[in-house]
Amino acid sequence: MDLNTKLILDELKSVQTNLTNRIDAVEHSIGARVGSLEDAAKVLDAWKPMMDASVAELRAEIGAFRKTEERVELLREEMTALRKSVSRSILGATQAASTGVLQRPKESPAWIPAGWTHFLPLGPHEESSHRGFESYAQSPVKGTFIPPDPDSKPKLYRSYSSSALVAGTQGGSGGVHGSLDHRGHEDGDGGNFHLPKINFPPFDGSNPKLWLRRCLDYFEMYLVPCRRWVKVAIMHLSGAAACWLQSMEEQVRSGGWEQF
Known about the structure:
- By secondary structure, the chain is mostly helical.
- Among the domains are: about 1-95; about 210-260, no CATH class.
- It has four helices and eight strands; from the N terminus they run αββββββββααα.
- It has helices at about 5-95, 210-220, 230-235, 240-255, and strands spanning about 110, 120, 130-135, 155, 165-170, 175-180, 185, 190-195.
């Protein structure tokens, strides 16, 4: 073997050695990087369930917050409507304060059993000779007495000043057969019936005319003295009517039923 060939072989061996070393270094670097990627993948696999749980919890909290916001908005609307309603009630009570909470209803006649005479209002301003039931019997003409018609239906009139009901006799013009009380009344057949216990009608500011009629019916049935009508009525006020009473209580207590 000549010298040139030997030099070429030595050079080839040197190149092979360098290539082998480089390949080994590259393989080692690739192996290290693949190991790092595998470790990162393991960390991501362990971290993903935690993130999923955190996202689900965050979604639940956001949903609860939205529901709370909706309830708050609904409550705000209800409070606004309630404030407007109270304002209208107070304004209505203030406007009615100058003339009274109730208007005096028209006088309405009511039928009473046959055989009774016409009722005239009782009260402190009425003369005693006009109290009770008045007969419509005509005056005797030439010694002849004309009795009242037993089939006639006299009328019973309510009065703001009446404090009691007194039944007159059939034949007299002003005689008193007996006073009525809340324990029993005489019906059209001559029998007696007992009034059941009825609570006084309350009043919250609505339907004042209907409440007034019920008050008068109650006073009439239970023979409440007229001087106590206002005290009994204001004990059963509530709502807007009670607010009005607080602003006008002194005038109401000092006045009478008609002013009330």
